[in-house]
Amino acid sequence: MKIAILSQDPSLYSTKRLREAGEALGHEIKVINYLRCYMNITSHKPQVVYNGKILENFDAIIPRIGASRTFYGTAVVRQFEVMGVFSANESQAISRSRDKLRCLQILAREGIGLPVTGFAHSTQDIDGLLETVGGAPVVIKLLEGTQGIGVVLAETYQAAKSVIEAFRGLNANILVQEYIKEAGGADLRCFVVGGKVVAAMKRQGAPGEFRSNLHRGGKAEKMKLTPEEKSTAIRAAKAMGLSIAGVDLLRSNHGPVVMEVNSSPGLEGIEEATGVNVAGKIIDFIEKNAASGKTRDRIQY
């Protein structure tokens, strides 16, 4: 098969591992910087052009779209879909998961466990907003934040009010969520491929840090999930329409709750912690599912 990895940097661990796994199985792999692509949008012969050459005869693409480049990156993915190329994750699903508010609303609609979450526009509604999520302590998140950036733990009512007013003063959109204290600064990253959890790890935040992101000094270890945790991760990925997803769960007193569904989850932490060849699992999925014209996202919201 001829497979394109849409990535800004071929030296990134995840990009390199996907390329290695694909080539090891005899596939032709090409890394394409999607920001340097341009598109010929026409009904008769839609095209993607890269470095002056038309990209054609690809069987599948693996999107590795950076969060800050979602708009253009998904446009390129969508153009490949128009051309009938199979995408490991489809453009609409990527866009759906990147909108944190939309993601939570869809998960809530599907009855999937979530932290109690509030969203408001006006700072005049702060008291009611905090009351909605059970009062302080609360976690305040920028909708546009990634890798733990733009996430604040406000331990008192006054601190929460000050942070919300500051963010809203900058015209930033924020979510306010209940703080799951019993999680102890740890979460579970569940790596879902093709409707199955292929690997899972526990990420523990650094001492004094409530965020468990590995980029922020967190530590990872292999973890055995409960049946309920597996089911929650699979249902969350399916609700987003994602074939490949990193689903982040917290263990709360009322069962697993979903914090985030990531459409371009990193491979380094999960492969090192678990020893699972996750890149190979992704290539296996593409081998079994890639077919011209099979890209059809039927989720309506």
Offer a quick outline of the entry:
By secondary structure, the chain is α+β, with helices and mostly antiparallel strands. The protein has helices spanning 13-24, 70-82, 91-98, 100-109, 126-132, 157-169, 227-240, 268-274, 278-289, and strands at residues 2-6, 28-32, 37-40, 47-50, 53-55, 60-63, 86-87, 117-119, 138-142, 151-154, 174-178, 186-193, 196-204, 219-222, 244-252, 255-262. The mean pLDDT is 88.
- Low-confidence runs of at least 5 consecutive residues: none
The chain-level mean pLDDT equals 88
Estimated structural class: alpha+beta
* CA-CA gap between termini: 32 Å
- Tell me the name of the CATH homologous superfamily of the largest domain: ATP-grasp fold, B domain
CATH architecture of the largest domain: 2-Layer Sandwich
Q: According to CATH, what is the topology of the largest domain?
A: D-amino Acid Aminotransferase, Chain A, domain 1
Q: Which descriptor suits the 3D outline?
A: globular
- Beta-strand proportion: 25-35%
Counted up, domains total: 3
The total count of helices amounts to 9
Largest sheet: 5 strands, antiparallel
For the largest sheet, list the strands in their spatial order: 14-13-12-15-16
Can you put this structure into words, describing what you see?
The chain has helices at 13-24, 70-82, 91-98, 100-109, 126-132, 157-169, 227-240, 268-274, 278-289, and strands at 2-6, 28-32, 37-40, 47-50, 53-55, 60-63, 86-87, 117-119, 138-142, 151-154, 174-178, 186-193, 196-204, 219-222, 244-252, 255-262. A five-stranded antiparallel beta sheet has the order 14-13-12-15-16, sandwiched between helices. Strands 2-1-6-7 form a four-stranded parallel beta sheet, with helices on both faces. The chain folds into three domains: 2-92, Rossmann fold (3-Layer(aba) Sandwich), CATH 3.40.50; 97-112 and 182-287, D-amino Acid Aminotransferase, Chain A, domain 1 (2-Layer Sandwich), CATH 3.30.470.20; 117-179, Dna Ligase, domain 1. The longest helix has 14 residues, at 227-240. Strand 4 (47-50) and strand 5 form a beta hairpin. It has nine helices and 16 strands. The mean pLDDT is 88. The chain is α+β, with helices and mostly antiparallel strands and 301 residues long.
